[in-house]
Amino acid sequence: MNSRSPGSQLADTGRGNEAAILNAALAAFGAQGFNGASMREVAKGAGTSLSNLYNYFPSKSHLLAEVLRHVNAELEARLRRAVGEAGDDAASRLREAVRAYVGFVVDEQLAMLVSTAEVRYLRGEDRERLVAARDRTQSIFTEIVEQGAASGEFRTPYPLDAARAILTMISSVATWYRPDGRLSRGQLSEQHARYALALLEGPLPHR
Amino acid sequence: MNSRSPGSQLADTGRGNEAAILNAALAAFGAQGFNGASMREVAKGAGTSLSNLYNYFPSKSHLLAEVLRHVNAELEARLRRAVGEAGDDAASRLREAVRAYVGFVVDEQLAMLVSTAEVRYLRGEDRERLVAARDRTQSIFTEIVEQGAASGEFRTPYPLDAARAILTMISSVATWYRPDGRLSRGQLSEQHARYALALLEGPLPHR
Amino acid sequence: MNSRSPGSQLADTGRGNEAAILNAALAAFGAQGFNGASMREVAKGAGTSLSNLYNYFPSKSHLLAEVLRHVNAELEARLRRAVGEAGDDAASRLREAVRAYVGFVVDEQLAMLVSTAEVRYLRGEDRERLVAARDRTQSIFTEIVEQGAASGEFRTPYPLDAARAILTMISSVATWYRPDGRLSRGQLSEQHARYALALLEGPLPHR
Amino acid sequence: MNSRSPGSQLADTGRGNEAAILNAALAAFGAQGFNGASMREVAKGAGTSLSNLYNYFPSKSHLLAEVLRHVNAELEARLRRAVGEAGDDAASRLREAVRAYVGFVVDEQLAMLVSTAEVRYLRGEDRERLVAARDRTQSIFTEIVEQGAASGEFRTPYPLDAARAILTMISSVATWYRPDGRLSRGQLSEQHARYALALLEGPLPHR
DNA sequence: TATGAATGAGGGTTCATTCAT
DNA sequence: GATGAATGAACCCTCATTCAT
């Protein structure tokens, strides 16, 4: 055992059934997509009645928004923790950020998938709020990359574009990763740390 | 004008309304997602009646399958053409393949988005057939990568994993590319060709 | 038998189920009120499926709007016919108009009730259209009243207000009339013709 | 200030929230109709919780019944007071009754509207009780009319039917009256007093 | 009294699909 | 091929009401 939270579980939030509903929604949206999932399924998954869902979330859209908000919050927390404990140079900070991100993708694969695939169904304010929150999360990476570009550690001509490429590369691991597959969590982290440094044209560790 | 096909248009297929329906389906699935789009929308977009759709495709699922099949076929054709016209070394073949792929993503952004986001709604044989077709398409890249790894041009310790990373990196360009954005089609091609070589730890062109 | 149309039937309108649906809606709205009636009831009453209703009317509100439009159209037609066949002086024109209106209320009691009670549930353009149509219908009365006021046949100091009072008085007959009650159709017509002349302070027939 | 109660307020009844609930119900039923209004709205309007409503009224139907009972009680009280202070002859008693009724309609327009429109949603004993109470209220008018018919003051051939016509005429003022409209409270009273005498074919005041 | 959480029934509406023409 | 009408299932959501506290 380790200290990581169990796969694809949103933290308890105090109110009776809220966490159960959020988790059931995550599972349902993950399995069927936002439009393919029904509130009845969510209710069944959460062990409550359909109508009670609406005592917690005013609409299916809002429920999706809350799911995505929680997922991003957890990701951001993990990233900040990891970067906070890293060294000072951009290369090691990047390495830790990548490891934490890959770890999140592996631990919370379903959350990551839903997070990527279902944002598009958010509209209006909910969407804007989430986009803003994600920008804050991604800025953890872009700041490191800018630091490394400024210090000369990263020599790529396109630091910000490369940063984006790194992020999508890592998050898309969720689309194919299998816990019983050829690559372990650790191997994936090493690989992607190396990919990231390679893309940024930074100092690759010797093989 | 150039010789590229117009954006997000599936080729005519001979049967009266077939192309119109496929294109309308692509547009509808792109705008609303597979489950969010309705056959009525598709019919309206194709300028025909709802029931006439079923003279061409036996079900909504099948319609999706056909859309995805056409998109992959077009992508594969473009890739094979590009690689066929390239040199013999892995680096230049890779460069041309990447350029062609990026070009496709840019030209057929919507097709690429749908292709990525909606495969999950295929089931059964339709799904298997498409997965097989995609594997054939992706093998264009993996063969080049294996060739380069064997020849020593690419020194990455993880050639096949890096190939997958390259593919997802390129296809995800569709999620953010804007025709009027900062990066032109050509710049994107150059960037990604460089990313690919960097990831494979091959010979980077001088800046 | 007489030539009056059967009670509470909206005329056939050509399209297959349309008349049946309108009549079923009239019955349902009459029995339960607009909000108390369900589209399922209407469908059952019309002998069709719930979903088929929406092939004829895009929403429950629209269905109500159409019901009310038809009712008013029928009333207006009857009034114009009656007035057209009357003499030239205001008193006899009024008498015929009142008789026709009372006749309509008695023949189409349910239609009249729904017409009065459920307008309030119309919103937006539907409401405005109906209000305009009703104004046109009521102007049949107000014009007669103005004619009689100008000619000196009606001596009331408030001709237009009295006209309104007459109209509400007649239409509210629908709230208590019973076909098997003490007052026959003919008696009601006579009474209300006399009420109208009395209210307008015109020439009362001798008793 | 005068001695009339404020518009559309049901009197306090002693129990904590009862008056607030009755008034909120009156407002909600007036705005949306009985079936269109929800107990949640009523609770919100009364400033209490949804479930607390059921400590005062056992059901929505009962709540409606109580609202209507209060409205009728207030109307009856006003009418009896007015008639009690009038002279002895039928014409002046009628005049005072009409004035009081018109005054009530104007002062308590919403209450009158609800009273007229929503009775139909009462069933069973609640309905019977209300009908009986209304009959008692209306008998104030019918008794005056019978007195005047007997004494020869009113010469109409249909005294009781005319009485009913008068009542509906007055109560329907609520459907169009606007406080800022052309007709003042006083003018309306005068008009309707005259209408009533005209309908009954009694002695009209000189103009 | 007063509350918040809970629920089963039912609301209007849309869906993919079928079928007679 | 092409259509318009039709349908049953399912959708999201709201309802009046209950109950433990």
From TrEMBL, chains A, B, C, D:
Feature: DNA-binding region: 38-57
Tagged with keyword DNA-binding: yes
Keywords for the protein's UniProt record, in alphabetical order: DNA-binding
UniProt entry tagged with the keyword Cell membrane: no
Pfam family, one: TetR_N
Organism domain of life: Bacteria
Protein name: TetR/AcrR family transcriptional regulator
Lineage: Bacteria, Bacillati, Actinomycetota, Actinomycetes, Pseudonocardiales
